[in-house]
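Anyone? Bumping this.
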Amino acid sequence: MSQSYNRGLIEDFGRWKEFSAGMWAWIFHKFTGWMLIGYLFTHIAVLSSAIAAADGQTMMVAGESVDAYTGTIQGLEGLFIVRVLEVGLLAVAVFHILNGLRLLMVDLGIGLEAQDKSFYASLILTGVITVASVPTFLTGVGL
Amino acid sequence: MSTQQQEPETDAEPEPESQETPTDQEMSGLSSPQQKRLQRKHEGAAERERAAAEDDLEGDTVHLKVFRFDPEVEGKQEPRFDDFHVPFERGMTVLDAVIYARDEFDSSLTFRHSCRQAICGSDAFFVNGRQRLGCKTQISELDQPVRVEPLPHQEVVKDLVVDMDHFYDQMHSVEPYFQQEDLPDGELEEQRQTRENREKVKMSTRCIWCGACMSSCNIAAGDNDYLGPAAINKAYRFAMDEREDEEIKEHRLRIVEQEHGVWRCQTQFSCTEVCPKDIPLTEHIQELKREAVKKNLKFW
Amino acid sequence: MAERYSSFTPGGTGWLLQRITAAFLVVVLAFHFFQLHFISHAAEVTFAGTQARMSEVGYFLTMVLFLVTAAFHGINGVYNALVNQGLDGIQKKVVLAVLTIAGLALIAQGTYVAVVMAGWA
């Protein structure tokens, strides 16, 4: 009786060093996509404090009484870790946008032979935009 | 033409004598494509000669690490890698090396091969982490040790032999044969294709069913129902063939636009990169996606 | 393979919608980031400022459409990622139902929040 041998998942992720540009683009696109949809849910949850604010609820921020919405957002924005996470979110969103444009081009059949170069370009551009935005994102917050 | 006796004293043609003398204008003349090709071939040969003289691999041995597994022999049921040191010869391919290993060292080493010239599609292996055709991969282009493994994402039957049934099932499910009911009038009339249309499907006809693309595809690995690059390319070859009727093209599009058809392709380009026949698989899949969308928009 | 003769296209419509929403989201997401981090800063957001922005009908409609397309694009993307991994049978139906409910709840809650912000509730 002959039986066959199934080597399982080792071929997929045990060989990440041999992945090519298109594969990395897919992995990053999927990862950033999960991040963004996850963020969308938290985003709406945080903004829901506007319902409480419209009801007239207030909270204390730095000794002052402000409405629940302003208090929640400014409380979060006052945390250094939130600012860092925001820079991360920007990087994730910019990559997803740029690689998304690359994928739209691929879907239209434009520049298929340059698909690896356009992936590297979107990576570099993401890095540049993220680094350039750090000062704007970190203004007025201390460690 | 071939029955005519050639006159040796007037014929100064450099062509080999076994060749037919070209008759149409395109083929004759000193700068015919045929002669250009021959000239390139001679130049290439001279180039290789020079390169080989400097080749330090000459007289060396090739270190092969070959995946071994045999479910029928106790003690071989646990997969392992065997080392073979094969004497290197100029122009040696991975297939040549494993043939040598089998013939000289271990006759139980099992793998498929037939034509040895990249036509039969039997010997796709996973060589140094990439799907390659054994007979088309030069040893001199690889880092050593050369790891030879069976194609990933298919079950291993023995050593380098994988079960291709699923791949063939997917290929057959796209009806990979010409379908046309209306034949042209006249007993000897042929079903002619325009040159442009032939050019359009040219690359897609080159598939040799080696399975390298399917093996490289991350989606085909996860979703067993996915048709896979080779089958979709085969569907493209017929859907784009203008000699088939419009209804048959629609029928073909309906096959590839099922949920586990073209939409599963995530444009990772893995298949396009490993295809030993350089078929632009991703491009063909994308074009079928657009064709399917267009057809449905028209329907609405 | 009986299903391959069906007259509708499973996947085809979703694929096209995913691309159309993508094209829209590229523009609006870039605008959204620019608006709330470079023009006015997120740290300086106040309820009054948000109310002022949201009570403009054009901005309100853009944001609600942004929410709907983003929710569709994200939920459909997650669903496709799971189908690509070979999700099948009853599991697939359950996942689709759960994701659809989550997406609709997200849109409902988000729209309600926007209406409250605009001061129309």
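Late reply, but here is one note on the structure posted above: The interface with chain B takes residues 2-7, 11-12, 15, 17-18, 20-23, 25-26, 103, 106-109, 112, 115-116 of chain A (CB under 8 Å).
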